[in-house]
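agent> Task received from the user: take the single chain below, predict its 3D structure, and emit C-alpha cells. No templates, no multimer pairing.
agent> Plan: (1) validate residues, (2) run structure prediction, (3) serialize to C-alpha cells, (4) report one or two observations.
agent> Step 1 OK, no nonstandard residues flagged.
tool_call: predict_structure(input=
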Amino acid sequence: MQLGTDAFAIEILNHRELFEKNFPDTYSIVKRELAVKMEDETIHDRIFGNWVIPLTTFRTLETVLDVPFNYTTLFDTAVKGMRVQNELAQESSEVADFWNMLQGFQTMGKCVEKVHYRIHYLKSFRPLGGKEEVEFMEARPILYASSG
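)
tool_result: status=success, residues=148
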C-alpha cells in the first residue's frame, strides 16, 4: 500500500513512544557507524550532523515502517550525499577565499583595478581554453585578471 506524505507523517507519529525511548541510544550507534565509515575523509561537522539525524530517525523506526528500502541502503545513500555536499561546500569555500584574498590585496594596495584586473559586464564570453561561448540572459560581471 502506498501512502502520501500526510499519511506517512501520521504513521511516524503513531510510533512516538518508540521513537522517544530509542532515539538517544540509536543516535550514538549511528553517529559512531558514520564516523567510522568517514574516518579517512574530512567532512564539515554541520554536514555530518545533518545526515546523522535522519539516519537515526529511520533506524529508530525501521522495524515499524513499511518502506521499499532498508537502513543499509539509506546509510549508503547518506554517505554519498555527505560526500557531494562536502565537495560543494569546499568549492563554495574556495570561491569565498579567493574573493576575500582579492579584497585584502585591494585594501593593502597590492591589487589595483584596471592594473591587475578588470571587471566587464557582458552578456556572453568565451573562457580561456573554452570552445564555446557562454551566454547569459542579462549582462553579468566577468573578472579578467592580469597574469603578469
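agent> Step 4: summary for the user.
The radius of gyration is 24 Å.
agent> Done.
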